[in-house]
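Regression report. Comparing outputs from two consecutive submissions.

Submission 1:
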Amino acid sequence: MNNNIENLTKRIIDLRDARDWKQFHNPKDVALSLVLEAGEVMEHFQWKNTEEMVKYVQTNKAEIGEELADVLFWVLLMSHDLEIDILDALDKKIVKNEKKYPIEKSKGNAKKWTELEKENNA
């Protein structure tokens, strides 16, 4: 695993364990926390058109970064607790997506892979 990811994960585990919070960190509650933090990322963009979002991001990067950091916190904690090598899982997912979304079918196209398959079989 990448040394930076290992160091961050260790800091997260140290923070949790020093406060005796592991007792609260079952997979369901950690997953809920991950979703809640992702929702907080979404709140930054809710009700804004493209122009408003561009302007908002320029002046609120630190706040958005904090919410993204919260999401990463829970991803790293959950992957640690479930003994999942998150970088390996990400690498495998990228390879899978490269196959599901070949460039010639998906470039500039926002369709889901299942829709691309239907078009290919039609």
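Submission 2:
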Amino acid sequence: MNLTLKSLPAALKFLAITLLCLAVSAAQANAQSLLRDTEIEETLREFTNPILRAGGLTPASVDIYLVNDPSLNAFVTRGQNIFLHSGLILEADTPNQLKGVIAHETGHITGGHIVRSDYGNRSAYGSMLIAAGIGLAAILAGEGEAGALILGGSQQFGVLEALSYSRVNEASADQYAFEYMDRTGQSSEGLIQFFEKFRAQEVLSQARRYPYFRGHPLSSDRIDALRERVRDSEHTGTTDTPEELHKHAMMQAKLRGFLNGPAEVYSRFPLSDQSQPARYARAVANFKQADLRNALKEIDSLIEEEPQNPYFHELKAQILYESGKGIDAIAPAKRALELKPDSPLLQIALAQATLETRDTGDYAKVVDLLKSALQNEPNNSYAWYLLADVHERQGNRPLAQYATAERFYAVGNIQSARDFAQRAQEELPRSSPQWRRASDIIVVTESHNARKKNRNRGPKPFVSFTSH
């Protein structure tokens, strides 16, 4: 099932930029979505990039996706993609535990452990999603950046039996993980702690295990072998830095604020707790409860303590925008971008808030913001959606149609991309880069349609009809 951003209620669009799909309808409660948040993505990158380099990988070539799913799971797919469930991040007691799991998944990439199923030449992951009605290309070509990508039922996506690794591969990934953590001067004790925390899962039935341990079978021998190497490491006993612990706590608090019910947030973070993570989570919970006064009170207290923190200003902008105060959201959104220039999601957030003024004099600034964001995230279909909107407001129908073609192309809607690219070409100057790009879209989509038609021309099965 696909839910495009265009079909979302208007009140969710800003939320889709900063932390996606956190308020989808009850009918979609069992579906999964990719989450986007600049702060969380930056934290995960800071934890992951040194590990990737230690494994001989280029960080820019490895994509990290955060899946909105409370189950404990993480996995990798072909193309060097790491998927982390929100449940895994919330279950990790320390950054070191989370890094240990990331190092283990990196070991599966460098060890070439991605297995094939009986689905032919497609990857197991792609085949499972295709069976669920969603193509792998649509997922990895930019729908995550678009917002509100529904990946499929949690059983189909969260429990990919086809991605089960052998115990040999699991032990190998453990050893890779140890080496990568050791090379970066970090202890692998967190990975052992993580495994021991859920060691009882090994004796449970397959149906009752966490998804992670269905795909990554655990054994006492593995833990013992890993413990032996950790015991001899010079980095054993190395702990997370205060900065890492704080970022981990803030990441978890933000996720809990958005993903858990307000009552659960207030229980975990009572008013007596005046720590930054507690106020962060309560600010979000109050916002979700439509308690604007207390939401702003909590976030303003954080801004007063750390006026240079862009993410506090970003959350304030979101709270104001989602509460129907779009124009008031411009100032904090602008401040967030000033503190973290060139952040695509923050640029998109400011562009959207600025559109609320409906001042034609602001449209050129909005176009500049969106073009800058698209230079870094060319497949961000929500940015293309906004760009089409502002071009339409400017009365520039050809550019609006071109931007719409790009939006549909980014989410894998080939037919609509081709239709809008053709409309744009009819009015765009042939010498313009947009005309040439529209031509590329038409060529690619026509080639795609031709391949699809040829696949559908396979031999038909013999059917016998018997008269009675």
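Expected: both submissions complete independently.
Actual: both completed, but the second showed a warning that disappeared on reload.
Relevant detail on submission 2: The chain is about 60% helix and 5% strand.
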